[in-house]
Amino acid sequence: MPFKLANVAGRAALVDGDHYFDLEKASGGELGSDPMEAIQRFDELDRINLSGATPDGKLADADLGPPSPKPPQVFGIGLNYKDHAAESKMALPDTPMIFTKFPSSISSPGANVMMRGQKVDWEVELVVVIGKTTKDVSQADAWDHVAGLTVGQDISDRAVQLAVKPPQMSMGKSFDTFSPIGPVMVSKDTVKDLSDMGITCDVSGERKQDSRTRYLIFTIPHLVEYISSILTMQPGDLIFTGTPDGVGVASGTFLKDGDVIVSEIEGIGSMTNRCVQER
C-alpha cells in the first residue's frame, strides 16, 4: 500500500488525508519514533493499518521537519534538464554532473531561507530518498533501494558559486537553510507515473519554473546506478535530481527579503519558504 511519511516535531508519522498518525503509536511500538529509522525500514511502513486509528493531529497544523533530517550524504545533480542547460549556455553533459550539498544545509519545508548575499537564487527539484545501503546497483534494481520521493529547493548563492573558475558548486549551495525538503516523503507507489511528474516554483506569486520530470536527462535509476558504482550510499541519503529552466540567474533576477517561494511537485505536495535577508 502507498504511504506518506512525515517528520512531526522530530517524530516519524504516517499521513492519511489531512491527518497524521504518530508512527510508534500506530505500529504498536513495532517501529520507533526516529524518522531516520523509519526511512531505513520503509518496506515495513505500508503494512501499518491506519483504519480505525485516532489521528494525532492535522497535517496543516503540524510542526513539520525535513523527512530525512540527518542525511549522511546529499548529492546534487547539475544541468539535468535540457532547457536549464540551454539557459545556462552550457553543453549537455555526457555523464551526470554531481556535486555535494552539505547535510547542514537541510531545513524544514516551512523554514525561512536565510540569505547573506544579494544574488541568491531558487531551484525547485525532485529529491530521492535512499532507503538501503546501496553499492553497485543496476538501473533495473535501483527503485528497490529508494525509500521515497520528496520536494526540494536547491537554493544557490550565485556570487559564492561563481566566485572562482571553474565554478565551485558546493559552498554556494550549502548555506544554512539552503536545502529545505518536504512536506512529506511519499512511497514510489503513491505516484501515478514516476517518470512524468509536474514540477513548479512560484516566487511571490509569480510562476518562475514549470516543467515535468520526463525532461530529466539522467533518470533516477541512472543516477542511482552511477553514484553507487563509485561510492556506497546509505539510508537517508538524498539526491537532488536537478532543476528545470526558469532560474533567476538566467535573467539577472534574484530573491529579495520577504519573497515567498512555493515549490510543488505533482503527487508529492508543496512547501512554502519565506526569504529573510540576514545581512
Architecture overview:
- Strands 1, 2, 3, 4, 5, 6, 7, 8, 11, 12, 14 and 17 form a twelve-stranded mixed beta sheet that branches. A five-stranded mixed beta sheet has the order 9-19-18-15-16, with no helix packed on it.
- It is globular.
- Helix content is about 15%, strand content about 35%.
- By secondary structure, it is an alpha+beta fold.
- It folds into two domains: about 5-65, no CATH class; about 75-275, Fumarylacetoacetate hydrolase, domain 2.
CATH architecture of the largest domain: Alpha-Beta Complex
Report helical residue fraction.
10-25%
Number of strands: 19
For the biggest sheet, the summary is: 12 strands, mixed
Overall shape: globular
Low-confidence segments, given as residue ranges, are none
What average pLDDT do the residues reach?
96
Helix count equals: 7
Number of domains: 2
The CA-CA distance between the termini, in Å, is 47 Å
Order of helices and strands: EEEHHHEEEHEEEEEEEHHEEEHEEE
CATH topology of the largest domain: Fumarylacetoacetate hydrolase, domain 2
Rg to the nearest angstrom? Answer: 18 Å
Task: Give me the CATH superfamily of the largest domain.
Answer: Fumarylacetoacetase-like, C-terminal domain
